[in-house]
Amino acid sequence: MSHSALDAAAIGTLTEMLGGDAESLRELVDDLVKEVPGRLAEAHAGIDTGDATLTGRAAHTLKSNALTFGALHMADLARQIETAARAGDLGAAAELLPALEYAWADVQPLLLEVCKAA
Amino acid sequence: MTATRERAGSVSAERRTGSILVVDDDPIIRKLLSRALAADGHKVRTAKNGAHALEQLEQAPSDVVLLDIVMPGMDGIEVLDRIKADPRLHNLPVIMISGLDDYDNVVRCIESGAEDYLPKPFDPVLLRARIAGGLNKRRIDELEQSRLRDTFARFLPESMVDQVVVSGDSDIRLGGVRLIGTALFTDLRGFTSFAEKRAPDEVIEVLNRYLGEMSDAVLDNGGTLVAYMGDGLMAVFGAPIESDDHADRALRAAREMLRERLPRFNEWLSAKGERKRFEMGVGVCSGPMMSGNVGSARRLEYAAIGDTVNTASRLESLTKEFPHQLLIADSTRQLLTEDLDGLTFVDEVTLRGKTTPMQLFTLAGISP
């Protein structure tokens, strides 16, 4: 489970982009940990109020963030929610959203662990 | 990691740095890209949406823009269109940031003038290559602009050079425009016989001194130097960039030539031990003319063509038959936007090939 949730190569790429600066990586992970709950709440809010654009946009950002940090399973779920929301199918988005939240719950401790090791 | 960095280095042996504007609504992507670019020595600014990006570019230019496609409000496609529609920004290399699944939008952006695209998730080697490519394009554009500026600076007042170079209006740069302007011709009387009795280097020195004075009178009054013809000079005012006060500026230049510049030139000559004091002939005429660059791709010259220009040249010749060094066509008098002291009626003449007579004027108090 843990290995498929987070692609180690992606973290290596990120660190390299940052010029090997582990402190910057930690800061970015902190930002992500702060950002994701808000985005998930936006996705929910869109479903609750029938605002497919809001859900689609939140899912788009979650997908992009997840890809950046190598959370491939999470990115795939976010992509499916984005596609459903953009098609106006909030029902399908609502069905997938809990899985995305579980995926994030798996990823978060792994990211923090990677940062400690960096 | 080290291996990859070396690989990145090989993309561009001499890695240039520049100022990059990162536009993305996602704060994590903004931070990641700005840290990555700063680590490579670039100066980075960020914008969180399209409107903010355009504001930043308005305040100060960047060398390259990294622009996210999917953003709330004004999306990246619209920001790109606005950049490409702005003559001051349209050369700016824009690299679109996109997801790998957004192929259609990427194609559309490239068709709209985006330089390239950078897929998410980011690859550091590709990021460096894209930025290096954008900076190279920027540098080539700057060299091209500086070449163009040099070309125009030879005959345009400095204040106009940037306007022409930056202008996206290709008519001004290369094609022709029809406009109302004022043409001015000058001639140095008796220079040919003066030159025959002197050494070539002396002749050239005297000629350059004279043409330098007269050219400054043109450029300082916002005119365009079209050509030197031996000891003569042709200038236009209100072209290639139109202006309302071209007649006023042409006459101010003519007055400055005859009242200040010619006496100063003659004083310089006497200081050199020359007894000769020169007189000039100046002809000025206003009206419609065609203005543009003519020649070939290898040699380009600015030209103004038309009856107005021919008439100005003939008025300059006609000064030999009048006790006036300056003859002004009535059309110039009519187009003055302000009263000019000393404007005096001279005569009414019918120029060869014309059917209607033309009133001629001069300026009082300009003769030595």
Strand-and-helix sequence of chain A, N→C?
HHHHHH
Sketch the major β-sheet of chain B.
Answer: 8 strands, mixed
Q: Tell me the domain tally of chain B.
A: 2
| Low-pLDDT regions of chain B | 1-13
Question: Which spans of chain A have pLDDT < 50 for at least 5 consecutive residues?
Answer: none
Which percent range fits the helix content of chain A?
A: over 70%
Number of strands of chain A: 0
Biggest pleated-sheet summary of chain A = none
Helical residues, percent of chain B: 40-55%
Shape of chain B: elongated
Spell the H/E element sequence of chain B.
Answer: HEHEHEHEHEHHHEHHEEHEEHEHEE
Radius of gyration of chain A: 14 Å
Q: What is the average of the pLDDT values of chain A?
A: 91
Q: At the first level of CATH, what is the class of chain A?
A: Mainly Alpha
Strand composition percent of chain B:
15-25%
Tell me the number of structural domains of chain A.
1
Radius of gyration of chain B: 28 Å
Please name the two chains that share the biggest interface, counting residues whose Cβ lies under 8 Å from a Cβ on the partner chain: A-B, 27 and 24 residues
List the helices and strands and how they pair.
The complex is a heterodimer of chains A (118) and B (368).
Chain A: H1 2-5, H2 8-17, H3 22-49, H4 52-68, H5 72-86, H6 90-117
Helix pairs in contact in A: 3-4, 3-6, 4-5, 5-6
Chain B: H1 2-11, E1 19-23, H2 27-39, E2 43-47, H3 50-59, E3 64-68, H4 76-85, E4 94-99, H5 103-111, E5 116-120, H6 124-153, H7 158-166, H8 170-173, E6 176-188, H9 191-196, H10 200-220, E7 224-229, E8 232-237, H11 246-271, E9 280-295, E10 300-305, H12 307-318, E11 326-329, H13 330-335, E12 343-349, E13 358-363
Parallel strand pairs in B: 1-2, 1-3, 3-4, 4-5, 9-11
Antiparallel strand pairs in B: 6-8, 6-9, 7-8, 9-10, 11-13, 12-13
